[in-house]
Every structure is written in structure tokens, then in C-alpha cells.
């Protein structure tokens, strides 16, 4: 079977790139999924210019009709769900069950926003003067430049693309290079749902050319909104760039997500939640569990159960029934190995027979498949983590979970907030008072009670604070504020100039009256 070549697509036409790279299967490194022709900064600017040319006509399409296009996207996704999930698993190594769930999330997103096409409501506001009406309207922002990571190569982009398009914007989408084939497949599904040429443009490019192209496009007034999902470091640079042009980007960044396990928690349930959120997708989610903060009275028992669960978890071939497969790409494998250097002598290492890459010299009992074919790494549980450890304060984006202890709930909340991220947090408890004390004190944008730090529903706001983002939210009705701008209209039909705050009628009572 020949290896497909994917390119950028601008105004409906493929654009050849000047440099090629390959997207490989991280569970079978010898397998090339696609050859990728990378565009330049000019490609990005051209895509923004094409989006600008197409946007006004798309905005003139009635919102309910745009909703019908979103519905068509959802139907095409459902009809192609298995093929898309299989491609995601091949390209980034996500277990097939997770990939199927990711594809379902696109369909769920489309189902929600289909209805929003009939609910882009404004308001009629009473005026303080007669013969005058006040209104508010939602207008599209214009052209949205969307840059996404590849750990959720199709679901997370849909969080941006679907509402942006529904609201009447045109979009330039730059996906991760290592997920280029999945991005191309998703683009094709959108394009075949009835979108006019130029309304959605796909740019396959590296980070440097994307940033340069974005800067030029902003300078030329071609971009009105930037959405970015990725690292905190890059997000800060994009935020700084957008700030020069008085734009507020939508930034969904990293996380060091805490899980508090109280003295009255169901330990079996907490272990199950910590296993999934710590090691699903090999810990390569922005919502992955970073540190478990366990009450000192149940610490030893929780560690025993958790280490046992991790030790017996099935790891390997992502097409099989496994907890996790490989790292997403070689760049993440190399970076994760640097994080392993943060293991210190005061840490107790649990969860597997070795630390680092799984292979003949460091085997993993029960591994499924041939570990030598891919980027497979042992799960690591570190007990005895301290607040001044690098592994406590920084995102490790891989199969590594730290454990520490607390005495009072206020101490647990302080530890949970200490790294400065604020994406997701969880608490396991049977005490409602602890739930609400935790909710009030935690700085995370998303809080789970007796559930994992990972797992978002398509109609709930998703996003973080602090090092995890700038407070913007995706998903549900809340994302509409990212892709629309409020417009206020006052219509005076009195036939004379009525000046607010000056020509307002007053009714005078008798303030001296007493019973």
C-alpha cells in the first residue's frame, strides 16, 4: 500500500510544500503513516488571506443553515468513525478504545452546536427613554487562526473548529506535524459537509514557520482571533504576540493536576481514578494526573493498592486492550527521559520492574506486543515527593505520577495549588463539607469529585487558569464568547435627540411621608 502524501489546503486547493517530513506509527516506528509536505510562513499568510476573502459570505449564511453544515459534519464523522479512530491509533499510538471515544467527542460536539445555530441569541433591553429600543447581537469575530497539539488530534480541534464555523468565522487550522494524517482526514470530513472553499484552510507547517506566519498575518490585519492548545511555554509567547495587537487569544495549556484522597475516601475508587487519569494516553494529556495528595492516615494503604494496580496494568500494542501504548512521537520520548532525571534518592519508585524505555534489557511483565518496535515506557509511581521537587512543580507529560501526604485539608489545598497550574483537580471523599471546602479553595478551572482529573463532556466549559491558560473556555455555550463579539444597538424612533442620563424622565414621590 503506497504511503499517502498530505499537504496544506488553501481555498480548497492543495499547496505543495518545500520541505517534507514523515509521520510514523509510534508503536511500530518502521511504519510510515504519511509523508507530509510542510508549508512556509507564506503558506500560513496565504491561508489567512483566503479565509479573509471567504469569511463575509459565510457570515451572511443564516446561522441555522450553518448549523445544518455542522450537522452534516457530525453525520460524516459518525459514518467514518471507525476508519478515523483506526488512523488516530496508528498515527499517535492512542489505545483504540480511547481513539473511538475521541471520535465520538467530535460527533457530540457537532450535536450540541447544531442546536446553537438556532440559539445565537441576542437580547432586547428596555430603554430608560420612550420611543427607543436597545438590542444586542452576536457577530462573528472574523478570521480565527487555530493551532492544536496532537495528543487529541481530532477531538480538540473540533472544540475550536465547530463553534468557530457555526458562528460565521473563517478558519485557518495548523495541526501538529506528527498528527498530520489525522488532521488531513478531519479536514476532508469538514470539507465534504458543504463548507465553501476558503472557509476552512489547513496549514501543515512546523512551529517556527507558523509563528512567523501568524506574526505577519496579525500585522497585516488578517487574523481576528487566535486559539492555541499546547505547552505553557509556547502559549506565553503566543499570548505576548497577540497582546501587541490588542487581541485576547484562547489559550489551553499544560497542567499539573492534583488529586486529593481524604481519610474517608473509597480507596478502590480512588485507585481506579488515579490509574486512568495518571496513565491513560501514557500520561500525555493536559488533564493527566500529576500528584496524588493522600491523607496520612490512608497513605500507606493507598500506595500499596495503587502500586499493585499499576504493576499489573496491561501496556503495549494500542490496537489491543491496554491501559496505554507508546509515547506520541520521538520528541516526547526524548523529553520524557529528561523528566526521569528528576527522580531523587528520597523517592520510592513503584509501579514497574524498571524505569525508562521498555525493552529486552528492561522488560515489563505482561507487555503486549514487541516493545522493540515502538516508543514504550515503564509506568513510574514516585512516593515521597516533596513540594520543592521538580517533579512536584512541573508538568512531566508522560507515564509518571507522584504521591505526597497531608494532615489537614487546608494543607492539601495549598499543596494542590502550589505548582501554579490551574486546569483540572479532583478530590475523593464522602464528606460534602470537604467537597465544598476544596471547590472554594482550589484554583483549577475544572473540579471532579470522586472522578478522575481527565474526562471532559462536550457541553461543559473546558479550560484553565494560571499556567494552564488565560481563563478562556472551550466547549458548551461558553465557547461562543471566544468566537463572537457583542454588538449593542440603540434605535431611537422618537423623532428627536434623546440624551442618555440627561433627558431621562423622573417620578417624584413624597419622601417625608410617615405612617
From TrEMBL:
Keywords: NAD, Oxidoreductase. Residues 1-10 have a biased composition (Polar residues). Residues 19-489 form the Aldehyde dehydrogenase domain. Its EC number is 1.2.1.3. Residues 1-25 are annotated as: Disordered. The active site is at 252. The keyword ATP-binding does not apply. It holds the Pfam family Aldedh. Transmembrane segments: none annotated. It is an enzyme of class 1 (oxidoreductase). Belongs to the aldehyde dehydrogenase family. Homotetramer. This is aldehyde dehydrogenase (NAD(+)). It comes from Tenggerimyces flavus.
Amino acid at each position: 500500500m503506497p504511503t499517502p502524501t498530505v499537504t496544506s489546503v488553501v481555498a480548497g486547493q492543495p499547496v505543495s510544500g518545500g520541505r517534507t517530513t514523515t509521520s510514523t506509527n509510534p508503536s511500530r516506528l518502521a511504519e510510515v503513516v504519511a509523508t507530509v509536505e510542510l508549508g512556509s510562513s507564506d503558506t500560513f499568510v496565504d491561508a489567512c488571506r483566503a479565509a479573509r476573502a471567504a469569511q463575509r459570505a459565510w457570515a451572511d449564511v443564516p446561522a441555522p443553515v450553518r448549523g445544518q453544515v455542522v450537522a452534516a459534519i457530525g453525520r460524516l464523522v459518525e459514518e467514518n468513525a471507525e476508519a478515523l479512530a483506526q488512523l488516530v491509533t496508528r498515527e499517535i499510538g492512542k489505545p483504540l478504545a480511547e481513539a473511538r471515544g475521541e471520535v465520538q467527542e467530535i460527533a457530540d460536539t457537532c450535536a450540541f452546536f447544531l442546536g446553537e445555530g438556532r440559539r445565537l441569541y441576542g437580547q432586547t433591553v428596555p430603554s430608560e427613554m420612550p420611543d427607543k429600543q436597545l438590542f444586542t447581537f452576536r457577530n462573528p469575530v472574523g478570521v480565527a487562526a487555530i493551532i492544536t497539539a496532537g495528543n487529541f488530534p481530532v477531538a480538540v480541534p473540533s472544540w475550536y473548529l465547530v463553534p468557530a464555523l457555526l458562528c460565521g468565522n473563517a478558519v485557518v487550522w495548523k495541526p501538529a506535524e506528527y498528527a498530520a494524517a489525522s488532521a488531513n482526514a478531519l479536514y476532508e470530513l469538514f470539507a465534504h459537509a458543504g463548507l465553501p472553499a476558503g472557509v476552512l484552510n489547513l496549514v501543515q507547517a512546523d512551529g517556527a514557520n507558523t509563528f512567523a506566519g501568524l506574526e505577519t498575518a496579525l500585522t497585516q490585519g488578517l487574523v481576528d482571533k487566535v486559539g492555541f492548545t499546547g505547552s505553557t511555554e509556547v502559549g506565553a509567547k503566543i499570548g505576548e504576540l497577540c497582546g501587541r495587537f490588542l487581541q485576547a487569544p484562547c489559550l489551553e495549556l499544560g497542567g499539573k493536576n492534583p488529586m486529593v484522597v481524604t481519610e474517608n475516601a473509597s480507596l478502590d475508587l480512588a485507585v481506579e481514578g488515579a490509574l486512568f487519569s495518571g496513565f491513560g494516553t501514557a500520561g500525555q494529556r493536559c488533564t493527566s494526573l500529576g500528584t496524588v495528595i493522600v491523607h496520612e492516615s490512608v497513605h500507606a494503604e493507598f500506595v500499596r493498592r495503587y502500586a499493585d494496580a499499576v504493576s499489573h496494568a496491561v501496556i503495549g500494542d494500542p490496537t489491543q486492550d491496554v491501559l496505554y501504548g507508546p509515547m506520541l512521537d520521538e520528541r516526547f520520548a526524548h523529553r520524557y527521559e529528561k523528566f526521569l532525571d528528576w527522580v531523587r534518592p528520597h523517592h520510592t519508585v513503584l509501579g514497574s520492574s524498571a524505569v525508562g524505555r521498555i525493552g529486552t534489557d528492561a522488560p515489563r511483565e505482561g507487555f503486549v506486543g514487541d516493545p522493540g518496535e515502538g516508543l514504550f515506557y515503564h509506568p513510574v509511581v514516585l512516593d515521597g515527593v516533596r513540594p520543592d521537587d521538580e517533579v512536584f512543580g512541573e508538568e512531566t507529560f508522560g507515564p509518571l505520577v507522584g504521591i505526597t501526604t497531608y494532615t489537614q485539608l487546608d494543607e492539601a489545598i495549598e499543596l494542590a495549588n502550589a505548582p501554579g497550574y490551574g486546569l483540572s483537580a479532583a478530590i475523593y471523599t464522602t464528606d460534602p463539607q470537604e467537597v465544598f471546602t476544596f471547590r472554594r479553595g482550589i484554583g483549577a478551572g475544572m473540579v471532579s469529585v470522586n472522578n478522575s482529573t481527565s474526562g471532559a463532556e462536550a457541553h461543559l466549559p473546558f479550560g484553565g487558569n494560571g499556567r494552564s491558560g488565560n481563563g478562556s473556555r472551550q466547549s458548551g455555550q461558553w465557547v461562543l464568547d471566544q468566537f463572537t463579539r457583542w454588538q449593542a444597538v440603540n434605535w431611537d424612533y422618537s423623532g428627536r435627540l434623546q440624551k442618555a442620563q440627561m433627558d431621562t424622565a423622573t417620578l417624584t414621590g413624597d419622601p417625608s411621608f410617615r405612617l
